Amino acid sequence: MRAAVVALVLLALVISNSPTDARRKGEENWKQRYRKWKDSEEQDHLNGGLIGTDEAAAAKLHREEQNSVYDAPSEDELWRQKIEEKKKRQRGEVEHKQKPTSEITAWHEEKWRRQQEQAVQTSPYFQRQKRRQPRDYHPEHHNGRNVRMSIPDHTKVAEMARYIVHNSNWTAVAYTSRQPGTYGLPMADIFSISDGLKDNSTGIPYMYISPKDTGVQDLAKDGRCSMIMSLSQSDYCRQEGLDPEDPRCGHVILTGKLKTVKNGTEEAARAEKLFFDRHPQLRNMPKDHKFRFAKLKISQILVQDYFGGPAQPTLAEYFAAKPEVSSGPKDPIPEAQAELLPGASSDSQKWLRPME
Ligand SMILES: *[C@@H]1O[C@H](CO)[C@@H](O)[C@H](O)[C@H]1NC(C)=O
Ligand SMILES: *[C@@H]1O[C@H](CO)[C@@H](O)[C@H](O)[C@H]1NC(C)=O
Ligand SMILES: *[C@@H]1O[C@H](CO)[C@@H](O)[C@H](O)[C@H]1NC(C)=O
């Protein structure tokens, strides 16, 4: 009898503490915690995340920032430091710091420059340049269409910038995130753009944007951004056998501030005309998305279209330049000449040879 009772008690103990039971309890516990966390997360999101008032959002983002693993100083802190520094400068306590020049860096640059020069001198591309053959784009050679579009010479960086901007239908924009989780970090988005009608380029990328887009929300708080456009967005680089990273597969980076175009103005009417000319599908966006036109107020231009690093045309040069646009049907190129044209070649491999 006693033995039976002891056995029963032991059995009960074993059952209640069995590993499967413990796991079940643990899972239950975990699920509860997860549900609680998820509820609070959702509540948070509704209260202060993307939908709530600015104050609530700011408070939440501030909390995020406090907990952030990237302990970047807050904007307030940066301002405080700046003011402190200015005061110190005024009191003459800080000397102007000179950047130390490194001989090693200079030596590397010189070596790189010479290598590039040598590579360029011996390249078939350079030989073509010497023969004054324009770097032409011949789609008709590839798809039988009788049109001819030439891209500007690589020495004409402002024209090249205008050409790329004019021939890009979209851009990747880089800005600073103000969203939970990525607050203060670099973030990217894509906007459809148009800088003008087919034969009438302005050089200014116009966009059609909605505040539902988190990128637009962030840019509304801080409009500073960079937009990149590349020849690889058209067929050019692929047909020339150029890798998108090849410097000859040109790209341009416009840095500036995003500005909305005031509704009802002449500029808004112009933006509407030139934007929907290229993006007719975007005409009928939902009303409640509050789409409106915006443009980039350009402050800096960076053009990479050849070896030796990017060039920086001035704003005056950029706006004075005209992009060479497709000039309509021309005579087809004779067969013999077509042979010499830059087709997809393995040449581009040579350019990408690693440096010793
Ligand atoms: C080209 O655009 C400008 C404004 O940017 C405008 O004044 C001019 O009339 C346009 N020309 C044509 C041919 O559309
Ligand atoms: C840009 O859009 C226009 C109009 O939709 C189109 O004709 C053109 O081919 C596009 N360009 C590129 C590079 O995709
Ligand atoms: C802009 O103005 C037009 C009429 O001038 C109006 O139909 C449209 O709703 C306005 N858009 C915004 C975003 O206010």
Describe this structure in words.
A hairpin with a 2-residue loop joins strand 4 and strand 5 (200-209). Residues 47-53, 127-149 and 325-356 have low confidence and may be disordered. Helices cover 45% and strands 18% of the residues. The chain has a 6-stranded antiparallel β-barrel. A two-stranded antiparallel ribbon has the order 1-2. The chain has 14 helices and 8 strands. It has helices at 2-16, 19-48, 54-67, 75-90, 103-121, 124-130, 139-143, 157-166, 214-221, 236-240, 266-278, 315-320, 335-340, 347-351, and strands at 136-137, 149-150, 170-176, 186-197, 200-209, 224-230, 251-260, 292-304. The protein is of the alpha+beta class and 356 residues long. The termini are far apart. It binds 2-acetamido-2-deoxy-beta-D-glucopyranose (NAG) (3 copies). One 2-acetamido-2-deoxy-beta-D-glucopyranose binds next to strand 5. Residues 197, 200, 202 line the site of one 2-acetamido-2-deoxy-beta-D-glucopyranose. Residues 1-22 form the signal peptide. This is CREG-like beta-barrel domain-containing protein. Residues 117-148, 323-356 are annotated as: Disordered. Residues 134-143 have a biased composition (Basic and acidic residues). Its main location: secreted.
Unreliable stretches covering 5 or more consecutive residues? 47-53, 127-149, 325-356
Mean pLDDT: 74
The run of helices and strands is HHHHHHEHEHEEEHEHEHEHHH
Percent of residues in helices: 40-55%
Structural classification: alpha+beta
Envelope shape: extended
Strand order of the largest sheet: 3-4-5-8-7-6
Beta-strand level of the residues, as a percent range? 15-25%
If you compute it from the alpha carbons, what radius of gyration comes out, rounded to the nearest whole angstrom?
A: 30 Å
Please provide the count of β strands.
Answer: 8
Straight-line N-to-C gap:
88 Å
What's the helix count? 14
Q: How does the major sheet shape up?
A: 6 strands, antiparallel, barrel
Bound molecules: 2-acetamido-2-deoxy-beta-D-glucopyranose
